[in-house]
Amino acid sequence: MCIAMSMIITSLSHAVVSLCGNVTISLTVAPLISVPVMVFGGFLITVDAVPMYYKPLTYVSWYHYAFEAIMIAFFKDHGQIDGCQKVNPLFDIECSTGLKLITDQDFHVDNFWWDFAAVGAILVFWKIFGLISFVWRIRSKT
């Protein structure tokens, strides 16, 4: 999953640089694409806490699918989590077991293979988009 994520980011970078044509501009544009997708992908806030008008960013976020797959892979078969209380006064989540932690993050165990397919589809999209934008940039220069 980590290799697929690095390939997606590389493909996104190729597409942005090809579209912008200038490294300085592309260094400004790339975070404008990747940061909102990362923030609303489930890292900093749970998926159900994302406001309705930002929900589309959750569905196109490669971070969301990769993070969900990694969380499921690590915690699905994990029983009791040592040192994690059933009711924690500091946090609103109950992370007593691995499955409880997954559901508290608003992830679904059944989506494991769907997450791999989604990351693969997003990778193919950015690869094709990067190639098309690169060819467009080359042909517009000649």
UniProtKB/TrEMBL annotation:
Protein known as: ABC-2 type transporter transmembrane domain-containing protein
Annotated Gene Ontology cellular component terms: membrane
Chief localisation class: membrane
Signal peptide positions on this chain: 1-15
Places the protein is found: Membrane
Species of origin: Caenorhabditis brenneri (Nematode worm)
Transmembrane annotation, as ranges: 25-45, 116-136
InterPro entries: ABC2_TM
Top-level taxonomic group: Eukaryota
